[in-house]
């Protein structure tokens, strides 16, 4: 126990006071690093997902990546404007869950909330597996250790988040801004080289040229895959409470900055991919091929690969920032365990952070660390809440009205329609990868409602109304059963205490066949020490203590109730001086308390005897 406390302090740091919470709030500079890493890092695989679909037809079809990218940018604009409105209208955090619950009702809110919970786990899994792919592209010798590397990265980011937002944001500042500098440098240097003629035009088809076999279905399949570049945009709206004051303004401005940077990155990378005629390869990412063409295999290429690996690895942190707050909102509404509302030593929602890490690691093992298998399911988890939140904002504007409300509603309508079309195409064109959503979502909803019903029933049973205060039961006496294994200082002190609180005290002992002489000796020793206390020896032929103890206590409790007596079972145990020594003792008392707790007419109490040495 002492070793665990030392290790915990080493990994997480010293506890913070509740009053220190203000110091954990985020500036726009740090929030961009903490909350936009997922969205910005998606450019590392967004264009690749588009080209992977289009290349199945022909190299000439890669020309359509420009039109797909243009549609993705339209959707990005609509989503950004919508979430800026959500931030201002619903600044408590929770994002799509709160918007859908308020405007469409609780079931729609739970679908949005459940989708996002799973999506944040997928965010971590996709980001980390993509990061490991960037590492193995640069160092092929590590390819066989991809799953292990991914799991270690998840554990490292979990430990970082358990230390608190301020420290995790400070740590993430370098990889995020390093990536921004390298991508900006690559795009600008690439365009300058194109303008100067140093980069040769290698596109298989000119813009607007007819491509034989191209269909609308294939185009939308590419669009639905490329839309993965927009994942993570919603994270800022879920984490508004983490910002410094004025929270709404700072969160909205951070979202705008992130979207502008994301749009520039996505447009630039897609254009370079088209111009250079880049084709997706299994062992070399599209971004890596662009970097090779622009920088060559020199220092800047490896710096770009390093920055890509770093941001993809830490992009998982967006999920760690948003998941705990969403879980908090669900727990506050009694749809998740209240443990998700508890703050840890560093003022973060530690249970949410740990749950997210466990879920992400499970997904990495299930999908064997392959990003392409996770992307479609990942996109569904994003665009279902997008659709619900943006359509919910239309309802919000019709109810609230206000200045220019119809223009705001029109923006939400555009985003909702495109998101809905995406969801339909994701299910229609990628059903082989997204079908688990249709199983996971009902199970999550069932879990939410079961938890909610439980909390409502518990609250109803625990609530004390005025008339019940006058009807509290008055007992005429108390029966105390002391469980005795042998006669020691512990049992002697426990019996002595029982006599002070009970009108009728019984000592109960369970004996076995193995050593009858010892059992007789225990009975004789107890009777000589406490001649005024009734001693009952229950024989067990099957070496079970719990079952005969429970049966005996049931009989005594029934008789006590007939006399209007309460029944208390006292379980004696000693407490070692060293906390770690507890694992060596008291297992029997734990089992006995567990079985006795099932009886509503029996009070279970523990008598602790503390050892001095």
UniProtKB/TrEMBL annotation:
UniProt signal peptide: none
One of the record's GO molecular function terms: transmembrane transporter activity
Regions crossing the membrane: 62-83, 104-122, 142-162, 174-195, 201-220, 254-278, 298-326, 347-367, 373-398, 410-428, 434-453
Subcellular location: Membrane
Gene3D superfamilies with a match to the protein in the record: Amino acid/polyamine transporter I (1.20.1740.10)
Keyword set, alphabetical order: Membrane, Transmembrane, Transmembrane helix
Highest taxon of source: Bacteria
Recorded topology in the membrane: Multi-pass membrane protein
GO cellular component terms listed in the entry, alphabetical order: membrane
One Pfam family from the record: AA_permease_2
Protein name: Transport protein
Organism (species): Lactiplantibacillus fabifermentans DSM 21115
Upper classification of the organism: Bacteria, Bacillati, Bacillota, Bacilli, Lactobacillales
